[in-house]
Records
---
Amino acid sequence: MRKLGLVGVVAAATVFAGCGSTKTVTVSTASTTPPTSNGGGASTVAACFTAAGAAVRGPHPAGQGTAVYAVTRDSGNVGFVKAPSAAIATRLAQVFPSSGWKIEQLKNDPTAFAIYKGTLTRSDSALLSKCTGKGSTGSTSTPPSTTPPPTSNAGGASKVVSAVAACFTAAGAAVRGPHPAGQGTAVYALTRDSGNVGFVKAPSAAIAARLAQVFPSSGWKIEQLKNDPTAFAIYQSTLTSADSALLSKCTKGR
C-alpha cells in the first residue's frame, strides 16, 4: 500500500504544506508571536471564502503574518496572507512558493498577498479576486460559481466517512474530520506510528476523479478503492506495515 497528506501554513519558521504534513523552511526574521493587528483582514477574507461554499482553514499564524486557506467548490486551493508591514509581506512571499503556492500581489495593499496552487478555474480566480481584492484584470467582475454543492448521496457519504473516522479512532489514531473537501468529504488521521492517512468520499465518480487530481499537489498520495469509484484513500510519505494495514482495513474493508 502506498501513502497519502493537504494545503499549508507557514507558522513561525514552518510551512504546513498539508493536513498533517510539514515542510520546514528557514526565515531569518520569523517570530513565534502571532500578530494581533492584522487578523481582521484575514478573517474578512475567510468569511468571503466561506460564503462562497469553500472549506476554510484559519486564520492561522504564518510567520509574522496571518494566513487563511480554502478549498473551493471546484477543488481549487486558494488563500490569503496578511503581514504587519510591507517588508515582512515581501519576506513571507519568498517563503510560500517553497511549498507549492503561487503568489498574487495585491495592487491596493503591499502588506498582503493572495496565494493559490495549480491552475485555477475561471470561477475560482474570480472568487480569489473578489475575496482578497487583488484586482486582477478581467476577473474581478466575474461572480464566483453559483453551482450548488451536490446533495445526492450526501447522507450516505457522511455515514461512510464517519465510519472510516470511527475505525481510525478505534485504532488509537488522532482523527480530524469529517471535513468538506471541495465537493467531497474527507477525514484525516495521525496514527500511533505518526503516519498521515485519510479518506475522501465524493458524490460521484467524476467528482472523485477530479479531487484525486487535486490532493497530490498538497503532498498526498492516492490509493484507489476497487469497490468504490466515488472514494479513495490518501496517505503521505511511506507508511509502516501497521499503518498500511490500518488504512486498508478502514477504507477498503467497509
---
Amino acid sequence: MRRQAAERYMSWVLMLVSSVVVLLSVGHEFLKEEYATGYGQFDVNISQSQLTLILVICAFSLLFSLPVVISKARPALRLRFFRNNRIEVLVSVTLCVLWIVALFIIQAPKYRVAVAPICKAIIIRNANLYFSSWAALFFYCI
C-alpha cells in the first residue's frame, strides 16, 4: 500500500513539474504574440483562443496537483479531499482528458503552437512545449 502511494506521489510531482514547464512555454508564446510587431510574420497566425485554452488547462492541472503534492509531502497538511483514492482517481482521469485536448491543440500544425508547416514540411517551433506536453500527458495517465 505504501509503495503505491509513493508511486502516485512521484507521478503527482512529475505532473506538477511538466505542467509548470508547459505553462511557462505557452505563457511565453502568449506574451510573444501580444507584443508581436511586423518582425515575426511567421508567428502572427497563432490562435490566441487556443493558447488561452491551453493556459486554462495548465492552470487546472496546477490547481489540483500542487495541493496534492503539498498534502502528501507534509502529513500535517493532508487534505481530506484527497484521502479517498476514488477522488484522486477521478481528478487524475479528468486531468488526463484535459491534457489529451491540450496535446491535440499543441501538436496540430494548423494552430502553429508547437509545430508549424513550412514549405510542405512540419517543423518543431517550440521544443520545450512539444516534448513537455507529451511528458505531462504521460505522467497524468500513469
---
Amino acid sequence: MGLSHRTVVACGEADGRRLALEAEDLPGWEAGGIDYMTWVGRGHDRQPSVEVHEAQPGEIATLRGKLIREGLPAEKADPELPGQLIEFSDRFGKIATDRWLVAPGDAPVAACHLLASGEIGQIEDVATCSPPAIEASAKR
C-alpha cells in the first residue's frame, strides 16, 4: 500500500514534449503538464489579518500529516501515505531552499510551503485544516 508512483520532471519545454510523446507508449506512465505563474511585483500595502511565522519542517510534522490526511480522498486513506509524502517533501526541500510559513502563530491550522533557488521562488503547497479543526484550535 502507500504511494506507488514514479515522476519524471523535465525542466525544458522541448524535452517535456519529447518525453510526453515517449510516455504514451509505456505501460503505467501518463504525461501531464504544470503551468507556472510568475509574480514580478515587489511589494504591497496590505496588512496581514493573522499572525504568520516561519517554522522548521520537524516542528510542524503533526500539522503537515493532518493537512495531508484531510486532503486525501477516502479511498486513498492509507496510514503510511502522509509519512511518505512528508519524506518526499523533505527530500525535495533539501535540494531547493525550503521554507514553511504557518498561521496563526499560536496554534497553526494553515501552512504554506515555499521553495527557492536564488531569485526564483515557488509556492509548492498551501493548505488549511477543515473548519472543525479550526474551530477546535480557536477554543484553545
---
Amino acid sequence: MSDDENSPVAAQEPPRDDDEPEADTPPQITSAGDWRDAEQPLVIALPSGNVAKMRQPPVLYLSLTGRIPAPIIAALKAHQADKEEFTLAEKDLLLDWLICEASVEPPISLHKTAGAVPIGKLSPADKNAIIAGLGLIAQFFGLMR
C-alpha cells in the first residue's frame, strides 16, 4: 500500500449530489393526483396494415382470479400430470388467448363478440407481430412448464 492510499484524502467518499436521496431515506408515497396509469399500451403496426393497441397480459392475475379458459386449464393440468406434450391445437389456443388478453384497442376475442375482432381474422403474420412485439413467447413457455 502506498502512503497516498492511507492518507485521509484518499479515504474520503466522493462528494454527493444534493439531489441524490440518502440510502436510508424511505421512498415517498405517491399521492392519488400523481398516481400513474398502469402500464402504457404499445401501439403495434401489423403486417396487414392494421394497427392495434396492446399491453402485456396480466397472466398471474388472470390465473389467480380464475380467468384462464377451461380448455387451457385442462391442457395445463394434463401436461403437469404426465408431462404429455401439448398438441398443436392447444398451443394455438394458448397463444390466441394470450393475444386476446393483450388486446386493448380494438379488443380481440376468442369468440364472436360485439365490437371485438375475432381472433380468426388475424393472419399468422399479424399474430407473429403481436407475439414478437410484446415478448409473449416467454409467457407462453412459462405457462407450458
